[in-house]
Amino acid sequence: MLKSLHISNYALISELSINFEAGFSVITGETGAGKSIILGALSLILGQRADSKSIKIDADKCIIEAEFDISNYQHLDSFFAANELDNEGDTCLIRRELTNSGKSRAFINDTPVSLNLIKDLSNRLIDIHSQHENLLLSNVAYQLEVVDTIAQNSNVIAVYRQSYSQWRNLQLELKQLQKTAEKQASDLDYIQFQFQQLSDANLVENEQVELELEQDTLSHSEEIKSELTKALQLLEDEHMSLPLLKESISALSHIKNYIPTANNWYERLQSTLIEIKDISSEMTSFEERVEFNPTRLQWVENRLSELFTLQKKYKVLSVAELIELRDNFGKQLQRIESFDQELDALIIKLDAAHVQLNSDARLLTDSRNKAIQPIESFLIDQLSKLGMPNIQFQVAILALTDFTENGRDEIQFLFSANKNRPVQPVAQIASGGEVSRLMLSIKSLVAHKADLPSIIFDEIDTGVSGEIAHRMGEIMQAMSVDMQVITITHLPQIAAKGVEHYRVYKDDSGNSTQTHIQRLNSVERINELAQMLSGKNITEAALRNAKELLING
User: Fold this and answer.
1) Per-residue b/e over 368-397, b at no fewer than 16 CB within 10 Å?
2) Of the segments 89-103, 160-174, 227-241, 263-277, which one has the largest average pLDDT value?
3) Domain that holds residue 107
4) Cβ atoms of residues 283 and 276 within 8 Å
5) Runs of H (alpha helix) within 123-259
6) Is residue 3 part of a domain?
7) What is the number of domains present in the chain?
8) Among 20, 60, 16, CA closest to 38
9) What is the mean pLDDT of residues 325-339?
10) Most distant CA pair in the chain: distance in Å?
11) What single DSSP character describes residue 467?
């Protein structure tokens, strides 16, 4: 439940602190006193978007902090653990800070968090029913939410949504596969042509490098042959190095046994001789192979031209990339050939997912149908007590043609407050006062099932008075047995039923107008009720009526 609220520099509030109690509390005050300001500040705690205009004039920053008692809500432990938040055990602090530069910060137990996380937590702690929320009664999504809350459908909906998500994903996958198949089929001839062209080229990865080397050799064959012949002649000429080297080796062989160093010279010259002979042999072999072959040269140049043309066409720089392209085209052709099999397999999976989805949707519909009669009975009973003796109320479930995230049902609340008048959708027929009473009854029905610690009503009594107001107060009293109920009201019949009574008022005595809130004692409370009954000029009769309301409350 909400234990306390602290507001600093928000709208007309410089500094305000208020403690709340369990049970039923009421807040009253003249129109324009600032009740909506306090509610607006609390809404920021619950994740509402901030506006820097809300900051009090001449202030740099406003702070709103609320403390909640969560000692009886151990199921929130998992929320704190999942979001890595400090868990204070019995209490939880939520704080918002707004600066006039437009920045906003949010905290849970002094840990910075996102607005979405604050909203997620606050939805588990408190419900604020403002006047505009009466419009929710015309919203089919809200009506569906009411039925699902009463039916306790959270687990059933979770199972259904998992099936729905799988079915939708398979639909999208099938659509994408069909689109890809159609595109690939339309490109089949072109892909086949490209694959065939690259396949017919008989590409070899290092071929281009080898051909370029061969081209260089063939193009300069005469020069190569001439120079190699010259080099070989020089090596073998009797006046050149090779014969002289042999004579040096022979000479050293005669003295190597006498001079240790001569043996090393001998071995090194012997190695040099062997190396020169090897070089000479390789040069001879190469020289014999080199020939002027215009036919081969033309073939090599044609082959290189073919490879360069393919690289230019496919915008690549090497034969290896051409080979990669060829292989990719081959894979695309194989994929096109297998599309029919993939489509058939995916359709089978989609059909199975549809069967499961249909089954889960029926379970959800059945659960909702079971909740209808208790909802109708409760609301008819409550509304009869609230001055609608001829009330007719029905919950209609309409089957949708398509599956949605919430099932295959549309819920409509049908209503009639008069005899011999057929039921119609609430939004089309209910008056303001009737909507207020219906909404209170629905909130009373839902609150216990939702296991919510606190609820705040902002003038839900609009459009009613007298005995009906008295009975609405009784409903709120009954709700407060199991949860904290705070109501902002302008009706003394309801205000008298609160265990605690707070008055919001404006103070113009200083340099600026300030909004304050005061917890009333018994005497102050009688005066407040009397003023609500008779206006500013409190009469003795009004005081007697106020005392009587408190006694009977």
Assistant:
1) beebbeebbebbbebbebbbbeebbbebeb
2) 160-174
3) 1-125+452-467+481-520
4) no
5) 140-151, 154-186, 188-200, 207-219, 221-236, 241-255
6) yes
7) 1
8) 16
9) 81
10) 151
11) H
> Exposed, middle or buried by CB within 10 Å (0-12, 13-18, 19+), for 553?
buried
In sequence order, which ranges of 386-479 are alpha helices (DSSP H)?
426-429, 432-450, 466-479
Tokens 């917890």 — which residue? 519
Host H or E run for residue 17: strand 13-19
Is 456:128 a contact under the CB 8 Å cutoff? yes
Q: Is there a contact between 35 and 504 (Cβ–Cβ < 8 Å)?
A: yes
Give whole-number Cα distances, 228 to 215, 273, 282, in Å: 18, 19, 10
Q: What dihedral do alpha carbons 287, 289, 292, 293 form, nearest 10°?
A: -170
Tokens representing residue 338 in the block: 């297998």
CB 487 within 8 A of CB 39: no
The whole-number pLDDT of residue 232 equals 66
Assess contact for 45 and 118: CB atoms under 8 A: yes
CB contact at 8 A, 415 and 425:
yes
pTM of the full predicted structure?
0.69
CA distance 26 to 488: 6
- Outline where 386-521 has alpha helix (H): 426-429, 432-450, 466-479, 492-495
Do 481 and 487 contact (CB within 8 A), yes or no? Answer: no
Query: Is the residue at 109 inside a domain?
Result: yes
Give me the count of residues in the chain.
Answer: 553
- Alpha carbon 161 to its chain centroid, in Å, reads 16
Here the CATH number for the domain that contains residue 458 is: 3.40.50.300
Give dist(CA 191, CA 202) in Å, integer: 17
Over residues 56-97, the pLDDT tens digits come to 888 889 999 999 998 888 778 888 888 888 887 789 999 999
Q: Which structure tokens are listed for 320?
A: 């290896």
Q: How many CB atoms lie within 10 A of CB 30?
A: 15
Work out the angle at residue 189's Cα, subtended by the Cα atoms of residues 186 and 191, and round it to the nearest 5 degrees: 95
Is a pLDDT exceeding 60 seen at residue 240? Answer: no
d(CA 163, CA 161): 5
Residues in CB range of 470: below 8 A, 6 or more apart = 493, 494
User: Could you give the residue ranges of the DSSP H alpha helices within 290-420?
Assistant: 294-314, 319-385
Residue 262 belongs to a domain = no
**CB–CB of 147/375 below 8 Å?**
yes
Three-state SS annotation for 384-410? HHCCCCCCEEEEEEEEEEEEECCEEEE
Cα three-residue angle 125-130-134, rounded to 5 degrees: 115
Q: How many CB atoms lie within 10 A of CB 89?
A: 11
The amino acid that residue 360 corresponds to is: D
Distance (Å, whole) CA 544 – CA 553: 14
Nearest CA-CA partner of 197 in 306, 274, 122: 306
Report how far apart the first and last C-alpha atoms of the chain are (Å, whole number).
23
> Is 104 inside any structural domain?
yes
Spatial separation of the C-alpha atoms in residues 307 and 301, rounded to whole Å: 10
Residues 6 or more apart whose CB falls under 8 angstroms from that of 287 comprise 224, 225, 228, 229, 232
Q: What is the pLDDT of residues 139-170, one digit of tens each?
A: 888 999 999 999 999 999 999 999 999 999 99
In this predicted structure, the answer to whether residue 351 has a pLDDT above a threshold of 90 is yes
Nearest to 57 by CA among 11, 20, 26: 11
